[in-house]
Amino acid sequence: MAERNISSGNIIINLIWKFMERISVQAINLIIQILLARKLFPEDFAAVAIITVFINIATIFVQSGFGTALIQKAEIDELDSSSIFYFSISASFILYIILFFVAPYVADFYHQDILKNLLRAEAIILVFGAFNTVQQAILARNLEFKKNFKASLLGCIASGITGVGLAYAGAGIWALAISTIVNNFVLTVVLWFSVRWRPKLIFSLKRVKTLFSFSWKLVCSSLVSVIYTNVRTLIIGKAFKSDTLGYYNRGDMLGSSLMNGLTGAINAVMLPVLSTKQDKIDEMKKMLRRTMSLNCFVIFPVMFGLVAVSKPLILILFTDKWLNAVPFMQLVCIAYAFYPMHSANLQAINALGRSDVALKLEVIKRVIGLCLIGLSFPFGVYAIVGSEILFSLVATIVNGFPNKYLINYSIKEQWRDIIPYLILAVIMSILVYSLSLILNIPNILLLIIQIIIGIMIYIVGCHILKLDAYTYMLNKIKSVLSSRK
């Protein structure tokens, strides 16, 4: 197979493409979800949230971490790729059959008959995901994110047209399920024709086992992570009213969309790049510091900004029937603010091939997280969701600890790098929120003023303090603009 196409210029170009993919897809998806939320009801989103948990768990077994294993491995050949392709396809059919027969029990447990047919229908995306596992890995290895951008964008647009059209035609909850299926189908088809690689009629169980020796730890790590991440959904869906889960789901949507869109772009590019620096610890540390600082420079003001403007934003986007989603949105946004620190540290650990360390970290974190959920449960749904904030802070320490020994980047150094952005973002959030207490004006006008004032406070603060990530981004922008003259 072709060698990796990685250079400093290529990194910047593909980082831009990855940003375009993440931001454009998340933006389009956000618009779609807003339109759907205005037409559908909290109970509809609650039902889809429940079946999504089971599909996400099954997806881990289908992909089995092989995509990451193919990216991380220094050299791969046709036997590696074809073996993984056929294994993933086989696993997807087996998992689909299992979910097909499990569906009635899920419906009975949650006392929602609709879940049976929803789960059986939407589980078909497991097969689509299996078809593009190798293609995704090849694009990531070569940093060909432009092709991924096109596929994701087309899938999102097709999904949006389908979902919104069905919702306004009266399809109800099926608009959500069918739009998800369409998205995954279009993504798979476009990637299939965008990537020249095709599986050959060859298969080696030995190669699968070799790659699995690395990926099984990722599977366990991902499984623990996904179960933990979704345990709140399962608990809230069972222990509280179904509309409560819908409010939580929509409150989480805005924060998670922005967090995943912004940090996901950088992290997706950094794994293959960091993998090329496995033997250059100093360079890896420098790159990780830059990644973490840039992530926090962007994510902190966005997340704490959302906390400040959550009420007018929810009322404008979703209407007053979703007002109960406001406290959920505020809580999850504070928790999401610290995710760049978790993910950046894990990217470095995985790039070093230390999936064993990543697995241990996931187990430790999730045990702590489950304890926090258990302790918070008697105090109600807001305490359950709020426990994610404490977990997120603990996770920054757990994930950061190994890198003190692996790349000489201690937790103390990490916090020293990001604390100025955190303090500035919190101050900005408090000042912006105070505007809603002072100004008695229409929500749309209040939101516009809050956003403008918030951006001004943060940028001016960064400029006065001469923060590293701000200066770096400013210089990059100036460099790009000057090169065009």
UniProtKB/TrEMBL annotation:
Keywords: Cell membrane, Membrane, Transmembrane, Transmembrane helix
Coiled coil: none
Topology of the protein relative to the lipid bilayer: Multi-pass membrane protein
Cell compartment(s), UniProt: Cell membrane
Main location: membrane
GO cellular component, one term: plasma membrane
Transmembrane segments: 45-71, 83-106, 118-139, 174-195, 216-237, 257-274, 294-316, 322-342, 363-383, 389-406, 418-438, 444-465
Name used for this protein in its record: Polysaccharide biosynthesis protein
Protein's organism: Anaerofustis stercorihominis DSM 17244
